[in-house]
Amino acid sequence: MAGARQSGLEVVVTRNREAPGPFLVVCEHASNHFPAVFGTLGLAPEARSAHIAWDPGALGVARRLARLLDAPLVAAGVSRLVYDLNRPPHSPGAMAARSEDFDIPGNARLSAAERRRRTEAVYLPFHAELRAEIARRLARGRPPVIVTVHSFTPVWFGQPRTVEFGVIHDADPSLALAVLAEAKVQTRLDCRLNEPYSAADEVTHTLRLQATPYGLANVMLEIRNDLIATPEAEEAMAAMLAPVLKAALAAITPPMTEEAVA
After folding, report:
1. What is this structure's pTM?
2. Fewer CB in 10 Å around end: N or C, the chain?
């Protein structure tokens, strides 16, 4: 396990760096840690442990997936309310002043200097670490398949969500469509494409920044968080999704020719 630090902050943790599998797992909303240098942003403990601060269950699923897929994992070390690593620096959502039903006092009327401080302390080192992992694999002739892991609430502004597993894509839908098809065959989950979010909701920044420019196969997974509310449920979900991802990748990978084998 390796971590990247900026000004004493562990903003990104990388596990299984030398894993030889084809996937690279990413969890941008892995943590609800509020470093002392940023304070609590004026939030009570219950708010800091709620979904607004992180994606509950996502890290547990991502860790298990990384083990099952023999893949590295790059995960966030601070709350997305300090900086949402799946948003670009100019996005209001990068340091949101309001999330769902919660006002975020510490993010209200942020100065340009404070936005820059958080960008330099959190966003830049996280994405530099992820880009470095991608570059190392590209240099070895093994382009990674990027899989980002997220969770979402079963109720949104009072409206129940029946979708259980969302498969999101950016510019290239190939892997997402294959994952959706395999999930419908291999699982009993209510699986849907681009639900409960899509690229139009600005949720594919990491894919757009890190995968699309290199032409890497990529997909964003959204899991309803009541289905991964315990460590046992996280393990079970990862065990269900790992073969789905493997089969999906096989479905979009051209078979090797005799010349290539030779």
Report:
1. 0.94
2. C
DSSP calls for 47-79:
HHTSGGGS-TTHHHHHHHHHHHTT--EEEE-S-
Q: Angle 180-197-171 (CA atoms, 0-180°, nearest 5)?
A: 65
Inter-residue long-range contacts of 246-249, CB under 8 Å, 24+ positions, other chains counted: 246/69, 247/178, 247/182, 247/186, 248/175, 248/178, 248/179, 248/181, 248/182, 248/219, 249/22, 249/23, 249/145, 249/175, 249/178, 249/217
Q: Which residues contact 108 (CB under 8 A, 6 or more apart)?
A: 97
Domain ranges, ordered by start, for the chain = 2-253
**Is 2-253 in CATH node 3.40.630.40?**
yes
**Residue 57, both tokens:** 């269950």
Dist. CA 212–CA 95, nearest whole Å: 24
SS3 114: helix
Nearest-5° Cα angle at 244, 155 to 64: 75
Q: Please answer whether residues 237 and 189 qualify as being in contact, where contact means their C-beta atoms are separated by less than 8 angstroms.
A: no
- DSSP, res 197: -
